[in-house]
Amino acid sequence: MNLTRRMFAKLLAGASLAASSFVGLAHAADMPAPFDNAGDVKIALVRYLSTGDFFQAYLSGVERQSEALGVDLRVLDSRQDAALQADMVDQAIALGVDGIIVQHGLTESMQEAVQRAVDAGIKVVAFDVNVENPAVPQIEQSDRDLARLALEQAIADNGESWKAGYVYVPGIAPLDRRNETWVEFKERYPGIDEKAQFGTLDNPIANSNANQARSVLSANPDITVMFAPYDEFAKGVKIAVDEAGMSEQVSIYSADVSTSDIAAMREPNSAWKATAATNPAVVGEVSVRALAMMLAGENPGASVVVPPTLITQKDLLEKDIKNMEELSAKLPQFAHAPVAVPEWMPLP
Question: Which of 214, 250, 290, 319 has its CA 20 to 30 A from that of 22?
């Protein structure tokens, strides 16, 4: 039989389609239930905090890992409304989701809502909110290590005696854990003199904290170190320090990182000297992987910890790091966390 070019092209296309379908079927066959029919798996991300680059990057990680698994992801954003976040857990239950990721929130508002989800047979993981439920693994950035790395750099840069301003809002699990380390450091180094504590999560967070930092710096012009263990806090402090013309007097140490943070740290004479961070996109991926393990009948552990990296102004300048992509490329330990990765797990 003679094949025309058109007939050959059709046969080749059909063979390619059959091959790709076979690969897909083989991949599905290698996946544990329910991911052998991943399109039928529904998960929800219920958010409390979403303002700022960190939370956008976290969301992108959740989306990428969900896409790699092939699951149906629903995103519910309460925009710092605690009561609405609890209602959104109930919405997710009503949608018939198989799993829920709770991202930040308040223990008192989320505890009962999460228990309702667990009672409904839904698997739940929590990122940076303590829902006080043994059935719910906690995804953590190792917040105590985040604070420790930043504060160790503050000691290395400034010695063991300095006057400090401290930005803190109690009741938020990651900030509470970072605060524990701050308290320990003040006990270990009695030369640290906390002159003022302030902070707010009112939107826009950076500008709201800048307003408070202006008053603190005006009342305490002898402050030389600002510990602001959340990058939106640090942005606000930097605004106030710059406006006061104190960028050569005050050094800022923080937690978390984003491309805009990197730009702020690289500015000439920037007061922002160091931050400790995990890659928020990686934390998002780990959150989905831990939930997927539970759905597959596996145990990711009660605490799923993503290790942090210290990022200094000196690193950024010497390695010419200008954005998150270059940070991952030039600090490989920041790019990936080998956490919650069973053999069957497809990665983004």
Answer: 290
- pLDDT for res 28: 54
Residue 223 CB coordination number (10 Å) = 24
Rounded Cα gap, residues 166 and 183, in angstroms: 11
Contact by Cβ (8 Å): 331, 315: yes
Residue 78 makes CB contacts below 8 A (sequence gap 6+) with 46, 47, 48, 84, 85, 88, 105
Is the distance from CB of 38 to CB of 71 less than 8 angstroms? yes
pLDDT digits (tens, 9 = 90+) for 181-215: 999 999 999 999 999 999 999 989 999 999 999 99
Comparing C-alpha atoms, which of 103, 93, 97 is closest to residue 126?
103
146, 178 Cβ separation under 8 angstroms = yes
pTM: 0.73
CA 269 to chain centre: 28
And the tokens for 313?
A: 């102004």
Please report the DSSP string for 148-199 in residue order: HHHHHHHHHHH-S-EEEEEE--TT-HHHHHHHHHHHHHHHH-TTEEEEEEE-
| Sign of the torsion angle spanned by Cα atoms 13, 19, 24, 25 | positive
Peptide bond into 190 cis (omega under 30): no
Give the span between the Cα atoms of 91 and 76, in whole angstroms.
9
